[in-house]
Known about the structure:
The chain is built from 14 helices and 4 strands. The radius of gyration is 19 Å and the shape is globular. The strands form 2 sheets. A two-stranded parallel sheet has the order 1-2. It has a two-stranded parallel sheet with strand order 3-4. The mean pLDDT is 87. It is mainly α. It has helices spanning 5-13, 33-40, 63-73, 89-101, 116-122, 125-128, 132-143, 153-158, 160-171, 198-205, 207-213, 219-229, 242-263, 272-277, and strands spanning 18-19, 49-50, 82-86, 148-152.
Amino acid sequence: MKAGTTTLYHDLRSQRGIFLPDKESNALLAADPENAYSRLFEKSGAGALKGEVCPDYTKPGSGDAAVERATKLYRDRPAPKLIYLVREPIARLRSHHHFISTQHGAANPGAMTPDLAASLRDFPELIETSCYASRLQPWLDAFGSEAVCVVRFEDYIADRVGTLRALAELLGLPDFDPEAIQAETIHNAGESRPVATPFWRKVMGNGIYRRFIRPWLSLEMRDRIRARLLPKAPSKPEPPSAETLRELRERLRPEMESLVDLIGAEHPLWNEEKASQK
Length: 278
């Protein structure tokens, strides 16, 4: 979450030969994942590469269930290709906090506030989602390192086309089209993201809208409507205090060291001192 998954979703969808349903379909968490995937992929073309983009599969509280069900689903099938996006962990945590604390109703079930220090105390998932080694280990145990590709958010944003070219090769996509990638567009960025008010959440959750209107609107059309009708997210809260920052660094340092070992990297993925200064 908040590591570029929405942008990667749009970049992958731009390629002919790849079929992705709506982001965060959560098929692995359905009561019957095999049936859920059958419904999701029923409109995919013959021979298309099929997949989904869903941050919930590596979140605390849902990640373990996702791994368990994926293991059963692929017991007699070739292993899936798994892409895991990671971002400098404190930057990701702050973006996660801003995203949830500006939501309303069911999208903010614990009533998280803009107070970062209080939120870190009351919502451990903010830190735990940035514990990348712990989140990734069950997937490595289930499918092996050869099935998993870890992509650094900062590298991806710096070179969208280059990253997608490498992923296309990994996925076995025969015809990669760099021109289809809108590299100037960042999707779901915290500062420009529209926020659904309680009224609009009722509208979007209405059965008539979901059954008769939404299916006729493309993803791009829905995004344009949301951008025009919904208010923008408020500014990000103040950065963490020096004490909070020090505590976060101490808590996350072992995870970052373990991640380096897990993926066989030669150097740390982020410079801790520069990240803290930023």
